[in-house]
UniProtKB/TrEMBL annotation:
GO CC field: cytoplasm
Family per similarity comment: Belongs to the peptidase M17 family.
Name of the protein in question: Cytosol aminopeptidase
UniProt-listed PROSITE patterns: CYTOSOL_AP
Organism encoding this protein: Sphingopyxis granuli
This enzyme's EC code(s): 3.4.11.1, 3.4.11.10
Gene label: pepA
Amino acid sequence: MFDYSDLIQPDKGQDARIIHLVDKTSYDDWLKGRSARERTALAAAGYKPDGYAHAILPGDDAESWSVVTAVANVDSLSAWCLAKLARTLPEGRYRVEGRQPGKALFGWLSGQYRFDAYRSKADARGGRVLLTTDVAAIAPVVAEMRGVALVRDLVNTPAADMGPAALEAAAERIARAHGGTLTVTKGEALEQGYPMIHAVGRAAARHHAPRLIEIVWGKEDHPRIALVGKGIAFDSGGLDIKPAAGMRLMKKDMGGAAHVLALAELVMATGLPVRLHCLVAAAENAISADAFRPGDVLRSRKGLTVEIGNTDAEGRLVLADALAKAGEDAPELVVDFATLTGAARVALGPDLPALYANDDALADELLKGGVERDDPLWRMPLWDGYADLLETDIADLGNAGTSAFAGSITAALFLKRFVPEGAAWAHFDTFAWRPSAKPGRPKGGAALGLRAAWAMLQGRYDRRGKA
């Protein structure tokens, strides 16, 4: 993975280009203070202080230029206000005039992300360095960027190279690097203990055998938390096969697993004082003579029976067995991530993960974290009034609602049946993908909700340096 730590450096007064920040309110007064040469250059360029617009300002000689860029509010910088500059400016060192970059440090790093593993000629990157005197902010923002880059890399990788075994390899690297204990249950060994993970994944080729991947880390006497991720490495829809257009992006259906692996690594790398249990339910929802069928009844790890109404509603099945396993260690907090429903995208579009929670305080902390990190969420109702849509004639519940309505809510209600009693629980129905690029947020795999969840965990458990 690219080392982002070189792109933010302590400001020790070294030579650097100046970045002037303006907004629509401050621009005219700022312009009055510029030299005639600079004003002429801006007028010739037709510069307007619109979002992300920037211009090069000439200095007294060819090497003394600076840059002006427009932000929404010079008094409250977003994470993304410098992200476009980080990709477009010439290589070199830069500092923001008269203030610290604050949250914009993250966007500076994110703007320099590339996924070029499959290109014969990789794009050049690196060499655009931002200076800050807030030295304590550097390590945390680099850690977050590494987590975001991990999600993007895993999701962007084609399914042929990112099957269940590759997810296991990613988990193994993380566990080994940070002293965690890795346990993997796979193939036929799943049939007794994790029957729904086994059923979903049994049709796949042997080298894509399903598995439950677990990492345990931290001291026994620390608060127990569980992170659970949907790792469907490719989703054909099973026998209820998706159309070609619906299958095109299904390499990203392991996006929930990517999020929890990145979040687990943040926990471990920063030494958060928790007892961590990370679980990834990994499988490929393939088609073969052994595929599970509509109308089958599966027995879950928890003992509840599930009638299959649609084989394309497989993510909740593998998550259910993983949630049941997580509950056996009596965690006080459970957070799951999943690319679970198209209904969430219809309701909220690609940018906003749907957040469900059984605890108002937890939901508030996550929403607050989303605002703080510019990683927005939208809370959806975990409304039990729709639970009857999961009823079935012959089993304890069905995996697909009996109505086309409230698809994201009924999926969350299905998961709720497997959440451990007494645990605070949050469920992210995330897209893990950006269909179009924005500054600092490239098209492709996306970490949506990761930084909000990390902010919540820090707020709950990191007491270092706090009164």
